[in-house]
Amino acid sequence: METIGADIVLQILQEEGVEAIFGYPGGNSLPLHDRLLGSPIRHYLTRHEQAAAHAADGYARATGRVGVCLSTSGPGATNLVTGIATAHMDSSPIVALTCQVNTSLMGRDAFQETDIIGITLPITKHSYLVHDVNNLATILRQSFKLARSGRPGPVLVDMPRDILAARCERAAPRQEAPEATVEQSPSDRQQLEKIARALNQSERPVIIMGGGVKLSNSCDLMLGLIEKGGIPFTTTMMGVGSITSGNGYDLGFIGTHGNQLANSIVHQSDFILAVGMRFSDRSTSLIDEFAPLATIAQIDIDPTSIGKNVKVAFPFVGEIRETISALVKLVERKERTPWMERIQQERETTDNCLPYKGCGKAGHFISLVQDAMPRETIAISDVGLNQIWTMRTWKARTPRSLITSGGMGTMGFSVPAAMGAKIGAPDRSVVAICGDGGFYMNIQELATISYYNIPVKIIVLNNGHLGMVRQLQDLFYESRFSTVDLGTHVDLVTVAKGFGIPARRISVDDSPEAALAAMAGAEGPYMLEVMVDPNDYVFPIIPPGHPNISMIHGKIC
Amino acid sequence: MSIEERTITILVKNEPGVLSRVAGVFSGRGYNIKTLCVAETTNPEISRITLTSNADADFTEKIKKQLDKLVDVVDVLDYTGERFLKREMMLIGLRITPDRYAELLQAVNTFGCRIIGMQPDYYIIETSGRRSENDAVFKYFQTFDVEMMNRTGSIALPRHPQKDSA
Amino acid sequence: MKLTGSQVLFKALREEKVDTIFGYPGGSVIDLYDELFHQEGIKHYLVRHEQGAVHAADGYARATGKVGVCLVTSGPGATNTVTGIANAYADSIPIVILTGQVPTHMIGKDAFQEVDITGITRPCSKHNFLVRKIDDLGRTIREAFYIAHSGRPGPVLVDIPKDILQGTLEETELFMKIHLPPEPPKEPIDEACAAALTMIRTARKPVIFAGGGVLRGKAVSELMTFANCIHAPVTASLMGLGAFPGTHPRWLGMLGMHGTYYANMAVSHCDLLIAVGVRFDDRVTSKVAEFAPHAKIIHIDIDPVSINKIVKSHVSIISDCREALQRLLSMAGGEVLLSADQTREWLEQIEKWKKAVPLSYCRSAKIKPQYVIEKLYELTRGEAIITTEVGQNQMWAAQFYRFDHPDTFISSGGLGTMGFGLPAAIGAQVAFPDRLVVDIAGDGSIQMNIQELATAVHYNLPVKVVILNNGFLGMVRQWQEMFYGRRYSQTEMKQALDFVKLAEAFGAVGLRATKPEEVEEVLRKGLETPRAVMMDFHVEPEEQVYPMVSPGAGLTDMKLGNLRRDAD
């Protein structure tokens, strides 16, 4: 068989070290899916393209490698949109390959034609439409590079069917351009010295870490900085798990559903070193009242994140690893006893004022799940109450072991992302934790999990409602519960079994040992449904539109 | 923060869809494009987009950073302010009767416009200059019988080339 | 009296006579849902995925002719509607999608659950709006409805920031009046109609080709009168099925890639093609250079963009279909334009083609999917509202179920969206609670939005799902058999999935047939059960859809498989 465009795609994927892709075929992907048959690349057929995109994203978040998803044209491509937007918001490196109608049909409203490049303009780091099969290799290589470099993000490549079927030569091997070593410029050096000086002179400093720390593999360096300088730290939700040794400097994570201690300490700080975080509204809450006493230094690889939402006295655009390596040499150890004492006092009053960190029985249950699973288990949450319960109670033991959809908050993310994570990291256990609402959203993936016997464990915390919205309605809308009742007429355990997955139901009040043992011990996939009271919420929270120090601890009757 | 008209010039690779991407950044971030002009530079692979937008002082820095992220954007420069010469062009089509020929010609000479289209009953005037000058010229010619008018967006160049960034 | 933005929105919806919304709540629209609590007269259906909400609104619109409405939150809620919006856009269906958005001062700041949905949907919606001031809210909603149903219908999205919903406005200042620019005067069509009539009078082999435009334009009875006036046979695109009765002797069946042999032959040999409300999609025309090669073409469509876009017409009438047909009929002055005698020979030739290659299939020990459809047609007496998924299931439904009434065939034509059928059936069932609504599905497609079965059960909507279960993504498998040497890549779905168990777990009724003798009983039982039912038919795995026009070939170049009967 002569070489065609489709072969080039597979050649470049292999060159990039891609072992597995997630996709769904269709008329315009036929040439590519045909050539996949002879390829060592494993293709996982999901049951909806949204899941293929989430799986590629989960793969990327768990491994640090670029995840790849593949769809046909038209509805296949549009079905990827939510997954691409999710990856975009959390800076996750994925390459989305969409097949397009023949170039001769483009622009004529052909069957299953859509302007996917136009549609995804706002949610991709970049995108390409391939016009010439001889550019295909270059474009694909460029896509992978873009996806993973700088601030990572999704890149889409739209490939018309005739290009995939066009005869061509095998692509010449990639020219390895020497990695440009970025020398620290003198003005950079000066700026770092200023930051170090301000940090050293501060009396109440805090470090805030975001997703960028994990993305740049700088967790160890940050720990070094924290320990050398003796500086308390917090993270955004995306930064949770960056530092895994609970070492007295950890304040928990900040934000709407974060730790009260973290919110309070940040509010009192006089200097904030923000690393790889973007001051999103979920982290800062009311921005005008955020950290009123603090001078802010912000280090990020993406210039657009710096100073976007807050005034930054010491901006620094740079690669985090290099920057922190240099900074740590300039930071001095200070004892800052009054500050540490204050933190300790507040910690004693706030950290344990609510049982199970305000996550109640569900939170307790999640900690039992963690105890039952191996140490390096990856936990992937969905969105809603289940997300907050998980992010607050699951202790991340390695940087890429706690994964969540932070920026976009996509319900239905957990199960397909867990699939992708397991395929990317087959030696680790993977647990998806979701609510009944999120579970429905990509429920069809139970078929995929069953078909490939992917041993993910799924915990469904079923309270029969859209719990987070219900909580908000209960607290702030005088308990007018509108359209949040999902009902309990569906037997989720039998649904799972109908898809071919063993499953079991318990109540959150039951003693779970047997069920957890069954789940943890299962060789293949397993679903555990846990019935939870719809009145179990999460506290403390920042009420909408309030500053981050105004957390409430319960329903005010 | 005062809202003023800001002028930005963007050098982009001449690829299909680039204009769409640039416009998308503005609308996605909530900025309105007031005028826009785009054409090839002396390098056919590079086009220049010049646009104006009413925004505050922060705008330029923020939009530059957003635009710099686009793969096809080569450079973004701020052409706002006194250091730049900004011009627009306008074409005015007006109906004319013989009794007013002389008046028209005198006005054209005074204003430094050109007559580029001449039919016995219909003239087309071309004028270029600062927007305020063009506005004034147009206002004057409205005393004739203006049938149609078309104007470009702004283009600009620095009074003297400098190496500073936008 | 002051009204909140949410109240203004509902007032605007009431002005538009909306009584049904499909939606899913979230943070950005929590105020709207709170207001919903107080609203009577509007029923909200909570789906299980926003894609289900858009497809349900779409199915509702196709079944009723009204504008369908859905409501979702910002961010992922909005992006989950994109496929449904693109689907409605491709088929010109009037729906209004209300999306929540972050507060105006947070737009463009990458806020939580923020996405540029107006940017994203610009290429795939008829129009969209971002409401920036509460003063604009009422008017914008009403304009959205107007745009959705006027001219060539289509989906319109209205993005509403949370602070707009929370803002207040004096009741007297509601500004509900629509501010659209005045409609350009309609081009007079008399000249074109006269030219068309002249062309018609000289034809002897006419064919009428009806598309979705006849249904959207509510021109069905005019089409019948017109067809009788010229004694012409009638064919339709997929989107036009139901525009002309499927049991009528002059009905040719569907045209195009999987159309009937006789429809494709008739169009290829006709001397006059009268195209009403069609867009000459590639599924219908195949190789454009060889489409209707002997015919003069009269093209009636409301959208000037469609005229001469793919196929060059000799006379074009840019108009609403109903008005155009009425004009033609009135200009004909009540006289017959072409008599039965004049088209007799032509119709006889068509009968020969019908006899030579009717739609058929070979019986076997396994259940044939075509048999299931035929039996379904028989048992429902052709009176059901049929929705379909996409693929072979869709084609067999179009071929073997005869649609005598308009708005009873609901199928994703232009975008070909798998997973459309079940939520669309829900939309149709909500619109017509007392009618029988059946989704014809494949085992691949039905999984895509299977979560909506929970929605159907929750609201006691007795939709019926007929799954033609062949363990494959059938249509892709067919292409792999025909053009890729039977190399089945990623199309096998053989799995442990038990549809009956699944149906019951969702609270519906599950039934299964694995032998041909069981089909009728299962169908009967399923159709008679007053609950949501899923029927799993294990059909012949490698059955092909015939006829099939070879890709890139003219319509007469059809693969017929086993269809050709022995000559008379």
UniProtKB/TrEMBL annotation, chain B:
<comment type="pathway">
    <text>Amino-acid biosynthesis; L-isoleucine biosynthesis; L-isoleucine from 2-oxobutanoate: step 1/4.</text>
</comment>
<keyword id="KW-0808">Transferase</keyword>
<feature type="domain" description="ACT">
    <location>
        <begin position="7"/>
        <end position="81"/>
    </location>
</feature>
<dbReference type="InterPro" id="IPR045865">
    <property type="entry name" value="ACT-like_dom_sf"/>
</dbReference>
<dbReference type="GO" id="GO:0005829">
    <property type="term" value="C:cytosol"/>
</dbReference>
<dbReference type="GO" id="GO:1990610">
    <property type="term" value="F:acetolactate synthase regulator activity"/>
</dbReference>
<comment type="function">
    <text>Catalyzes the conversion of 2 pyruvate molecules into acetolactate in the first common step of the biosynthetic pathway of the branched-amino acids such as leucine, isoleucine, and valine.</text>
</comment>
<comment type="pathway">
    <text>Amino-acid biosynthesis; L-valine biosynthesis; L-valine from pyruvate: step 1/4.</text>
</comment>
<comment type="similarity">
    <text>Belongs to the acetolactate synthase small subunit family.</text>
</comment>
<dbReference type="GO" id="GO:0009097">
    <property type="term" value="P:isoleucine biosynthetic process"/>
</dbReference>
<dbReference type="GO" id="GO:0009099">
    <property type="term" value="P:L-valine biosynthetic process"/>
</dbReference>
<comment type="subunit">
    <text>Dimer of large and small chains.</text>
</comment>
<dbReference type="InterPro" id="IPR004789">
    <property type="entry name" value="Acetalactate_synth_ssu"/>
</dbReference>
<dbReference type="InterPro" id="IPR019455">
    <property type="entry name" value="Acetolactate_synth_ssu_C"/>
</dbReference>
<dbReference type="InterPro" id="IPR054480">
    <property type="entry name" value="AHAS_small-like_ACT"/>
</dbReference>
<dbReference type="InterPro" id="IPR002912">
    <property type="entry name" value="ACT_dom"/>
</dbReference>
<dbReference type="Pfam" id="PF22629">
    <property type="entry name" value="ACT_AHAS_ss"/>
</dbReference>
<dbReference type="InterPro" id="IPR027271">
    <property type="entry name" value="Acetolactate_synth/TF_NikR_C"/>
</dbReference>
<protein>
    <recommendedName>
        <fullName>Acetolactate synthase small subunit</fullName>
        <ecNumber>2.2.1.6</ecNumber>
    </recommendedName>
</protein>
<keyword id="KW-0100">Branched-chain amino acid biosynthesis</keyword>
<dbReference type="GO" id="GO:0003984">
    <property type="term" value="F:acetolactate synthase activity"/>
</dbReference>
<keyword id="KW-0028">Amino-acid biosynthesis</keyword>
<dbReference type="Pfam" id="PF10369">
    <property type="entry name" value="ALS_ss_C"/>
</dbReference>
<dbReference type="InterPro" id="IPR039557">
    <property type="entry name" value="AHAS_ACT"/>
</dbReference>
